[in-house]
Task: inverse folding
C-alpha cells in the first residue's frame, strides 16, 4: 500500500477528544505506559493547557483532517541543569500504525526540540514494547540501559529501557569564557580543561 500523506501541527484544545482516544488505546494495551486510568477530553484539555512552546504537543492529521496520532515533549526534570533534556512521547491510533504517522510526528518533534534549544531527548520504553524500541532506534535513539523493576503495572514489576538522542546542533563545544581567557593569556597553549 502506498504511504498516505501525514501532516503535523500544534495540538489545539479541540483535539483533546481524539488525543484521549488514542492515549486510551495505548493505556489499554498495557505495553506503552504505567498509566491505567483512562482519560477523557476534559482531562486532556487541562493537560494541553499545561503545555507551551517549550513543551509542545503536536498532532498528526490524516488527509480527511482526522487526528491519527499525537506526540509531546515534557520536562525531564525541574532542575535547571537538565533544562535542555526533554522527554519524548509518541502515540499513534491503532488502525494507523505502520504507515509513517509516527515517523512524521517524530520528525516534527525533533525539529521542535532543535528550535527550542533542547540538547537531548530521552524516553523510557517498556522492554516488551518491541514496536516502540524499533521506532526510537530508527530515529537515532541509543538504548542506554535497562532500568530494572522501574514501576509496577497491574501488580507486576516492569523493566524499562532508557533511550536518548542528542540534538547535536544544540551542543555547543565552544570553550567556556574561562578557558578562552586562559588560552589568550597563555598565547593559545592551554592544558586540558576539566569542568
Ligand atoms: C511506536 C509507535 C508510535 C510507532 O508509530 P508508527 O506510526 O506505527 O511508526 P511508523 O509507521 O512511522 O514507523 C517508523 C519506523 O519505526 C519502526 N517501527 C514501527 N513499528 C515497528 C514495529 N512494530 N516493530 C519494529 N519497528 C517498528 C520502523 O523502523 C519504522 O520504519 P520502517 O517503516 O521504515 O521500517 C506506535 O506503534 C504506537 O503508537 N505504539 C503505541 C504507543 C507507544 O508504545 N508509544 C511509545 C511510548 S512513548
Result:
Amino acid at each position: 500500500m502506498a504511504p498516505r500523506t501525514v501532516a503535523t501541527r500544534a495540538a489545539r484544545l479541540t483535539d483533546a477528544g481524539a488525543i484521549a482516544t488514542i492515549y486510551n488505546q495505548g493505556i489499554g494495551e498495557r505495553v506503552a505506559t504505567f498509566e491505567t486510568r483512562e482519560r477523557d477530553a476534559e482531562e486532556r484539555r487541562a493537560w494541553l493547557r499545561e503545555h507551551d512552546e517549550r513543551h509542545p504537543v503536536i498532532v498528526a492529521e490524516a488527509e480527511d483532517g482526522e487526528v491519527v496520532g499525537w506526540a509531546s515533549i515534557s520536562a525531564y526534570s525541574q532542575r535547571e541543569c537538565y533544562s535542555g533534556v526533554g522527554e519524548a512521547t509518541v502515540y499513534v491510533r491503532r488502525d494507523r500504525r505502520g504507515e509513517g504517522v509516527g515517523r512524521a510526528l517524530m520528525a516534527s518533534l525533533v525539529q521542535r526540540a532543535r528550535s527550542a534549544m533542547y540538547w537531548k531527548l530521552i524516553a523510557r520504553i517498556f522492554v516488551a514494547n518491541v514496536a516502540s524500541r524499533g521506532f526510537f532506534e530508527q530515529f537515532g535513539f541509543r538504548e542506554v540501559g535497562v532500568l530494572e523493576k522501574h514501576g509496577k503495572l497491574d501488580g507486576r514489576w516492569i523493566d524499562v529501557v532508557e533511550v536518548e538522542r542528542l540534538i547535536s546542533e544544540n551542543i555547543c563545544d565552544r570553550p567556556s569564557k574561562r578557558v578562552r581567557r586562559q588560552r589568550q593569556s597563555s598565547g593559545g597553549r592551554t592544558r586540558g580543561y576539566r569542568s
The pocket of coenzyme A is lined by residues 26, 32, 89-92, 97-103, 123, 125, 129-132, 134-135, 138 (CB under 6 Å). The chain has one domain: 7-185.
